[in-house]
Amino acid sequence: MLAPSWKYEVFRTIAKASDRNTVIKEIMKDDAMKKRGKEATDAAKQCTTLIHRLPPQVVEPLAEEPLNERAVFDSAKAFLEREFGVPVHIAEAESSGHAKGATALPFKPAIVIE
Fold it and tell me: Could you tell me the pTM of the whole model?
């Protein structure tokens, strides 16, 4: 399951921030994020951790020009199905209705095996 678009905004905001330790406060000033409450705060913390783990040469381009993850997974679908021998379904986390969808982050999809 792919992360919702608002999490990509959080990722880009944090990746572009000069001080990643105080950027969560800036993100939470946005009314749409404020309405999400703890969900937005948790996503910001998770994105910060993810950004710190990724090499800067990976983060910088992703902060400037968003990657279309849907297109990447769509193009890899046939390969993944052959490789794992099972059908692969690519879904948006928010519309999937699966509890695991809440864990999806930009560049770190939620994977459900059933």
Answer: 0.85
